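Thread: quick sanity check before group meeting

JM: Hey all, I'm pulling together slides for Thursday and realized we never actually wrote out the predicted structure for the chain we discussed last week. Dropping the sequence here so it's in one place. If anyone has concerns about the input, flag it before I start.
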Amino acid sequence: MARTKIDYGLDLGTTNSAIARMENGNPTIKKTDTGAETMPSCVFVNRNKVILVGDTAFNNRRSDKLTAMRKKDAELSNSFIEFKRTMGTDKKYRSKSLDRDFSSEELSSEVLKTIKSFVNDDEVRSIVITVPAKFEINKRDATSRAAQLAGFDHCELLQEPIAASMAYGIDAKSKDGFWLVFDFGGGTFDAALLKVEEGIMKIIDTDGDMWLGGRNLDYAVVDEILIPWLQKKYNLSSFLQDETLKVGLQEAIKYYAEEAKIQLSFKDSVNILSGLGELGDDDAGEEIDLDITISTEDLIPVVKPFFQKAIDKCLHLLDRNNLSGSSIDSLILVGGPTKSPILQEMLEEQITKPDTSCDPMTAVAKGAALFASTIDIPEEIQEKTRDKTKIQIGLGYEPATVEEETFVTVKILTDKTEGKIPDKVFADISRTGQGIQWSSGKVEIDATGEIIEVKLERGRANLFQLNIYNETGDLLESEPKEFTILQGTKPPTETLSHHIGIAIKTKSRKDYLVFNKILEKNASTPVTGVTKKPLKTQIDLRPGIKDDFIKIPIYQGEYDADGTRAAYNYHVTDVIITGNDVNGFLPAGSDIEITLKVDRSNSISFSAFFPALNYSHKIDHIEINSVGVTSDFLETEMRKAMQSIKMIKEEGVYSDIDELDKIAFEIEEISKRLDQGKGDYDRREQVFDNLRGVLRRIDNITEAAEWPKTEEELKDVFYRLEETNSEFGNEKTATLVEQFKEQIPKVIKEKNVKVARELIDAIRHLDFVLMDQGLGAQMEIGLLHQFNEDFDSHDWSDRNKARTLINQGLQMAVNNPSKQQLRPIVIELYRLLPSTNSPIAGDDTVLTD
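JM (edit): ok, ran it. Output follows.
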């Protein structure tokens, strides 16, 4: 059947996927090959190198992981699941059978191909695929690539909470008020706040966690219940000391954790019993077996922290929009874990009683199909499926409305029709379905178009049949034959789930790059944003010279990201502009104006305008690249964070010690999660995501206490300058010192950190010049002693090298060296003091304000 609307919605889930199609005006789930409504998002490669997907793959997964564990070789595994969480990253999944690596989008494409095959009466060329609201741009981009690999000609991406609200809203008794979508899926958590007025939906705000879902609950049961039980009975030293073997053990027994979690949704206790010897032997050669009873009381303390984290996100979302749980008219549950009575009880206690009328497992797919019924298939794709021997009809109508009557424009597409068209043609639009039948009667139409008023049934998807007749009443072959109009609800427009901007160097924050917002979170897409003021280039850009380049790092950030360290936000990609991309010489310090555009599916286009050249460099679709983090990097960041907390306490400027202790506890918990799975790519990314928020809070505390320290530092450097000037200065330097003395009271009165920092730099520079002229090597020796005394307080990029240089310099100082001998050592030590935590900070190729 020729279609003008997409009509197909696909929920590409972390653990389960589903596809729905509009049939007879209703979103209908297409059953899988096993007759189920959902299919496991699982891929397995068997010994014959055949790729299996879905239930067959999932059924093989258990034995596959057990075999890998028994043989203590994780690389033997050929089973893959939950790869949605690593979409858009450089994570690779190794298949021993095929001797090749899969990316997350390649595995996702296998799921898409299989689930598409369940539609056996139609060729699915266009699709709406749902993604978490908190999916960053790189993950959305990877989802689009997966759709291309799966053979779809056109793919629209839709946020999962929007899809769920569509499914709920079509049958909702109340079409007004505030709705909160609580989407706790297999791998991700989304919260979306909507305001609904007479069925018209508007997204107010969103929140969520890309690394929070059912997977976390499963691994919590593994790490907190199953492994401790096994440790008491068996010698597992080799498994727990080797990260690869540890991951293999966790993967092998995760199946039992999943079963326990599901069973405890409707039972008070469950017994977990493994097959005899299927877990292999421990280090002492004893067969490892599971035989443990888990009760609801055992489960509550294990899963409750994860549920609470999701609820806290919702409470924070409501609070920043000046709402409370009592303001919510409907709390809509989505995702398998929301069936948990533990979670439902917590939601009722802390927010409001959940609405369980919508099936949490299929709501997203059905809502996606409803949304798809409102989206046009691109004309070039329609052309591929047209049967031009039939009369082609063009339809114009509002696909969703809250009115009970609407208008449809009907016209003959003569340029699309190859067969003969009668002199007179009549159209009849009739409504079928559950309610009273309705027909427009035969209305004459032509190539100009005729407007026909249609009547709608309230609160449902209205399916209309379109029949075309000649003057004598003969039915003519034509297409399309039907269309759908939603009554009583209008889908919300997609919004940006993050701020989008670039990283720049600022005069006030020379030590690191900051996030400079261009596009606002919650802005409706498509949207365009321009830098608020021109930025400055840092280097000369010579035309035709590829080695001359400027780098523009693009980031996504949360609602409070503007002005924060870029490294604490989500890096999207770096746009590189070289001398080959400009039409003339561009000197350092030139203005540059950045424009970012985001379309409905969050694809980004980029433009950089150089006024000096009257030239714009444009990129229609920026390529996305993401690289994962290492456990060493995370451990270093956590160590530095704990060190920062210690220093804040010692300085005594910040009085809320309880808040500092709370942050320290959170870092310890994050560190614990990392220790439980350093070898797991997914867990490292989850840890980094959690750590970002903690680091931002430490920065906020540091900045709140910055002025008292800055004021003290300003006074100290000035007093030191006065002493240096009295010993080595002259009339000219005395005049400069007096000028500084006059400026200081004004800066202190205004408490302007930025100006104070610039003044401190100027004072230090003069002090350095005077000491350099008067002290010979004594200044370098003094700096070496200072570095030695404060060694542990510095963030050395190479601690061993720094220690070696200091020791070398102090040893030379004993023999009365010249400053020329010590100066290189001091300079090298300064180079080992990183100016920022961002790997690209301090780079002159980055823009400045």
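AS: nice. The chain is about 40% helix and 25% strand. Residues 296-320 form the longest helix (25 residues).
JM: adding both to the slides.
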